[in-house]
Design goal:
Strand order of the largest sheet: 1-2
Shape: globular
Low-confidence stretches: none
Helix content: 55-70%
Oligomer: single chain
Distance between the termini: 21 Å
Number of strands: 2
Structural class: mainly alpha
Radius of gyration: 22 Å
Largest sheet: 2 strands, antiparallel
């Protein structure tokens, strides 16, 4: 790592063109926010039954991916894998950028973002949301210190590199546990209320975050014309395959556990067989396109060495992540609350019926603007700071690679 030369990315027409494109998405997101804030949330697809909509899917994906984006830096620092250490700065910055992008969507979707001050000054520690505010801010602070220890050559700062890496690694596990526990501790919803949510979200973060990191890394080195060897790409590709398998395993255990418990048979039938669009998104989006197809692309001998297909597989993992969160968040709310187990419930307030939800355009625009915020921070960060290695050629990162 000490021999790696780090450089800022250039500032040509492509750089400003990309910033302008991201700026358009961010302005569109702000317009959507003002429209929803001025008109009220009735203009969205959300209602009293579906209170978490498409913006929450985007926000939670970005927050979960932020934790996983730190994978590469953690492997280099915590587990001492030298090949990953030159990528640590990019990995840490991407983690910060994704978390800020996700929190931006979350705050702007509150309807009254100024009320966030109340949440920040009046803590209800019986609520997992209060804990998450501490976890998010702590993550941003720790990873910022982590980057500082990676960049500052001063030995007085450098000696804290390992400590900062370990602290960030442990904190990110706690953070993702907190995000998964939002659902795992919510006993009122049949689709949630499962302790496995916390570890499942951790594995999801590994997969989603690494997929995003691989796309950012390959795009950066392609657009800047810097060498990117096969050693790094293949190592990360294999790791991504392991994480995809891990997510599939936890999803299978989650559903098998629910199928064993009679009280969850109804919601399992809804998600797996009778849920209409949610069933299709689960089987086609999450399982086939988001899991099985990427696994095939990453390990099939005809595609496993192609960067194009590795990029496609990474994009499919991200698509599958959105599908998984859509089914979990919105499908879980669409299934009616079981207010009195063993009895049928009906009322004029839509109790006992499957709730419908269609994301509105402002919600989708706000969600995509969160991605744009994250990518804009990443691009500007790589422009002003020396975060990217000048070369990731095989000879530089692994002279023994064949």
């Amino acid at each position: 790592m000490k021999n790696t030369k780090f450089l800022e990315i250039g500032s040509g027409k492509g750089y400003y063109g990309l910033l302008a494109l991201l700026g358009v998405f961010i302005l569109a997101g702000l317009s959507s926010f003002f429209y929803m804030e001025h008109s009220g949330h009735w203009v969205t697809g959300m209602d009293n039954q579906i209170v978490w909509g498409a913006p929450h899917v985007f926000a939670i994906f970005l927050i979960v991916a932020a934790s996983g984006a730190l994978n590469v830096a953690s492997i280099g620092t915590v587990f001492g894998k030298q090949m990953y250490q030159p990528l640590g700065r990019m990995s840490a910055l991407l983690a910060i950028a994704l978390l800020i992008g996700g929190l931006t969507v979350l705050v702007l979707d509150l309807g009254r973002p100024d009320r966030l001050i109340v949440a920040m000054t009046h803590y209800n520690f019986k609520s997992i949301f209060a804990w998450n505010i501490i976890l998010y801010n702590g993550f941003l602070g720790l990873v910022a210190v982590y980057i500082w220890t990676m960049m500052d050559p001063n030995p007085a700062v450098k000696k804290f590199y390992k400590v900062a890496g370990f602290a960030s690694f442990v904190w990110r596990l706690i953070l993702t546990t907190g995000t998964g526990s939002i659902f795992g501790w919510l006993v009122a919803r049949q689709a949630y209320d499962a302790a496995i949510m916390a570890p499942m979200f951790i594995v999801m973060s590994f997969s989603f975050g690494l997929a995003v990191f691989m796309l950012v890394m390959m795009a950066t080195y392609s657009w800047t014309g810097r060498p990117l060897g096969d050693a790094v790409v293949r190592r990360l590709k294999n790791l991504l395959g392991v994480f995809i398998g891990g997510v599939l395993y936890f999803v299978m255990v989650y559903h098998l556990t629910n199928l064993y418990a009679t009280e969850h048979h109804g919601v399992e039938a809804f998600i797996l067989r009778d849920g209409g669009v949610f069933t299709k998104v689960f089987w086609i989006g999450q399982i086939f396109l988001g899991s099985l197809l990427p696994l095939g692309l990453l390990f099939c001998r005809f595609t496993r060495d192609s960067r194009f297909w590795i990029g496609v597989a990474s994009a499919l993992v991200i698509l599958g992540g959105f599908a998984q969160l859509y089914v979990l968040l919105i499908g879980g709310q669409a299934y009616p609350l079981v207010l009195f187990p063993g009895y049928e419930v009906s009322s004029t307030f839509a109790d006992g019926v499957v709730n419908s939800y269609s994301p509105s355009l402002p919600e989708l625009v706000l969600g995509f603007s969160g991605i744009a915020v994250a990518m804009a921070l990443m691009v500007v960060g790589m422009r002003v700071l020396r975060l990217t290695p000048a070369s990731l050629a095989d000879a530089a990162v692994d002279p023994h690679h064949k």
